[in-house]
Amino acid sequence: MSVSPEFSAMDVGNLSYRYKDFIIINPLMRGGIVPKSVTERLCDEGWLEVGYNLCHDCIEGRSSLITKPNVKEFLSEIAVFFGGDEAEHTFGCRAAQFAVMKTISEVSPDGVVLSDPNSHYSTNIAAEMCGLKVVESPHTGYPEYKVEVDSVIEKIEEIGNPALVVMTHADPYYGNLAPVKEIGKVCAEKEIPYMVNSAYTGGVMPINMKDLNADFLTLSAHKSMASIGPLGFLVTTYEWSRKVFALSKSKPDWTGRAFGKKIPNVFGCSIGGLPLVCAMNSFPYVKERVKKWDEEINKTNKFIDAMEDLGDIMLLGERPHRHHLLHFETPLFWEISKKHRRKGFFLAEEMIKRGIVGLHKGLSKHIKLSVYGLSDEEVSKVLEAFKEVAEISA
Amino acid sequence: MMIMENIRAHLGMKYNLVGVKILKEKPVDIEKPTRKLRYCEMVRKAANGEVITAEHEDIACPNAEVTLGFVEPVYVDIQPRISPAETKVVKVGPLDKIRDPDIILAILNPRQAMEVASIMDGLEAKFAGSMAVCGEATAKPYMEKKSNVTMLCGGARTFADFRDSDLIVGGPPEFFEELSKRISALSKTCVALCGCKTSDLSPRIIESFRKIGFEKGTDYFFGKVDGTNVRIYLNKDTHGKIKYITVHIPLRGVEVKAKEPLIVKKRGNWTDVAMTFGLGEAIDLNTGRGLKEAIMDILKKVSDSKVIAR
Amino acid sequence: MEPEVFDLRGEKCPDTFVYTKVKLEELAYSGGGLLKVIVDYPPAAENIPRSLKEEKIKYEVLDVKKVGDKTYELLIKAPPV
Question: Which of A375, A89, A72 is nearest to A230 (CA)?
Answer without folding.
Answer: A89
